[in-house]
Amino acid sequence: MHAVILAAGEGSRLGSHGSEVPKAFIDLAGRTLYDRQHGCLTGHVDELTVVLGYAYENVVDDITDARTIVMEDWDDYENAESLRRGLAGIDDDVLVLNGDVVVTEATIASVVDQHSSAADRSVVAYIPGYQNHSTALRSDDRGLVAEYGMITGHRHAGLGVIDRSHLDAARRYLYRHRDEWYPGLYTAIETEMAPIPADQHIEINYPRDLFAARRKLPLEATDELDLQT
Q1: What CATH number corresponds to the domain at position 61?
Q2: 20 to 30 A Cα–Cα from 66, which one of 3, 75, 87, 139?
Q3: What predicted TM-score, i.e. pTM, was given to this entire model?
Q4: Is 228 inside a domain boundary?
């Protein structure tokens, strides 16, 4: 499996906290988000690609453990184009992780395991519980993704696996929707929804998220997944 971390955006909502580096490389309690992500991915993927854009020159030379793709025109597109470029040259199942998301190794394992048993379907992680303040997913009666966007539904967790059989379709979709958010892709390919626990997930968008994350760390897997639907 090949992992792609999407780290091209500016993270402007963080203000001065992310002004000199991509959001994935800000410090979170003594370690960067990227370092935390890398630690969780190592046992589950064979290769890693990081898509960079904003302030890439401040971090690219320090990334020696992954392939890097630089989008100098990062601000002309949305993250669908970041993912499209990240998929270039890959012929394998692809684990997609947003650069501003940290999860536990156990969460990565659960999503990878669901994909392994999904019979040529892709998989996307979500946080159970209907909400309308973040981008969300809704499924059909087969448990496959039917809708994505600023809708009432389960919060998209910034983590998924694109099955290798879907790569050509994914690239075509992403090319047609370069100015949109990439998770719309999951409505275009057969994608199962995979619940993950909210207490094993951190997403950094605002300074308040940094403070909340420091209280939440270290993320630890619980013996039983508390998935309230």
Answers
A1: 3.90.550.10
A2: 75
A3: 0.92
A4: no
